[in-house]
Hints:
Layout (H helix, E strand, L loop, with lengths): L2 H30 L6 E6 L2 E6 L2 E9 L2 H16 L15 E7 L4 E7 L18 E5 L2 E8 L5 H18 L3 E9 L12 E7 L3
Antiparallel strand pairs: 1-2, 2-7, 3-5, 3-6, 4-5, 4-8, 7-9, 8-9
Protein name: SOUL family heme-binding protein
InterPro entries: Reg_factor_effector_dom_sf, SOUL_heme-bd
Pfam family, one: SOUL
Amino acid sequence: xxxxxxxxxxxxxxxxxxxxxxxxxxxxxxxxxxxxxxxxxxxxxxxxxxxxxxxxxxxxxxxxxxxxxxxxxxxxxxxxxxxxxxxxxxxxxxxxxxxxxxxxxxxxxxxxxxxxxxxxxxxxxxxxxxxxxxxxxxxxxxxxxxxxxxxxxxxxxxxxxxxxxxxxxxxxxxxxxxxxxxxxxxxxxxxxxxxxxxxxxxxx
Length: 204
């Protein structure tokens, strides 16, 4: 075997090893971040019907296109949980960050962090000012489609259409607008990212 081929094989081995390390780190990090609990009611590949309990969230409203709004919303929510603009202790980071159209025609969005389950509205630190709002979302049945990759507008639209079609075929009615859920930071490689489109749906 020639020297060049041996070097090439060695380089491929190094890339594979680094990829394995990256996956291991990603799995560990995701296992340490709290995510909302739910009961799986039905699953069909990447699509799942879930029953969620009531969730406490911190939210802001931001205008603009989807990517601009979620970036603008992240900063004040992060400042709230890390106690940058209020007294008291910081709050553990959770996943996902969610985004729901508030007024679709006006490009107005609700950007939310789900609070750790140990908190109630009464025990959550009070937000400074009126920009960050604390509220409880009631228990709900939601349909979700899970996918990896960089969450571009085109990819999200494709997955939202796929979920809508599946729900229509299953005879399950949708309530309200879609919610987009992002589980990873911007530095996570696309293949390792977890994204979801969710709808609140009618349920027995």
